[in-house]
Predict the structure of ABC transporter ATP-binding protein.
Amino acid sequence: MGSITVNNLVKYYDDVEALKGVDLNIEEGEFYALLGPSGCGKTTTMRCIAGFEDMTDGEIYIGGELVNQVPANRRDCGMVFQSYALFPHYNVFENVAYSLTIRDLYGSSPGQRIKSFARLMSRRLGKPTDAIYKKVMSILEYVELDHFADRGVSELSGGQQQRVALARALVMEPSVLLLDEPLSNLDKKLRNTMRATIRRMQQELGITTIFVTHDQEEAMSMADRIAVMKDGEIIQEASPTELYSKPKTPFVADFVGSSNIYKADSTQDEKGIKINDNFILLTRYSSTKSSERALIRPEGIEILKEKNDGDNIVEGQVTMSTYFGPLIRYDVDIGGVGITVEEDYTTGTPIYEEGDNIILYIPEERVVLI
Ligand SMILES: Nc1ncnc2c1ncn2[C@@H]1O[C@H](COP(=O)(O)OP(=O)(O)OP(=O)(O)O)[C@@H](O)[C@H]1O
């Protein structure tokens, strides 16, 4: 199985600098997500690792081997694309078997190629060899599609096509699996199911996996580690929990969840943040610089039934109330500044409507300076 190391990866498309020196150290068996907005360079990074794209500068190692000069079909990477890229006129079995045969044809010695080609021919005549048959059927069983082996792929649902694409990549037993936004064509419910399926398979097979997505929820729920990219660079790399609780920049904070971000205050004797006339005391910080930003996650703010004399209490007016089932989100105006609050909803939780007054408590341990 393969670890992946990328050193100072630079990629220009003519004069567009798509990657500005990306470094990655992905451990064997790790599930690693590249997360970032459209155009930040996720796919380019992936394509360079797979060998589909020439790089301008840098080094890529797979399983400790420098692969800069190694062609794509010899890099031992299985790749699944957003569009699935299945052969529409082949059935499920053929799509998966074809990938196996093609790799054998182009990735082995001339003697083996002849045998592989013979297998390909025999399959085309409707008599697949035992070895191919067993291998393909076992992987189809694994993705729970063995009963659809002879069905045309165009007659499958999106989620089923997605599993064929996954089977096609896995049948080669690659040491590295590269998944480029594989779930973005699926509806929300199917996406959740496929997330679990992919994560389970990855853990069972222990394949080093890079997953490209612009969906923070997807990255957070699946990956061991996440690299957040922006404008061709990695801004922060961390575990999902660390990324959420200790984002290094306002961009990361905003990208990995909803957040309230305010300027830290440097003018007061006391340390804290000023939100209009409200001062949020931060006793555990030795100083707050004006260059710093204070991040408060919406779920870190408490709604009080009554005002009390404690610190860090602000009053506001609800401007929007959104009910999501398990939680309610309030957009609140506190003297011209907005703050978003989220509260778990259980039966009996009072719901505030637009225009209602609301009392908020901001515990200082829920404020992170970035
Ligand atoms: N073939 C190409 N020719 C010229 N520029 C390209 C090419 N492919 C990508 N780019 C540019 O390189 C940058 C990175 O693109 P890339 O596709 O890697 O981003 P991405 O993060 O995967 O975006 P998305 O989430 O939209 O797929 C973008 O500015 C893009 O316009």
Notes: Residues 188-205 form the longest helix (18 residues).
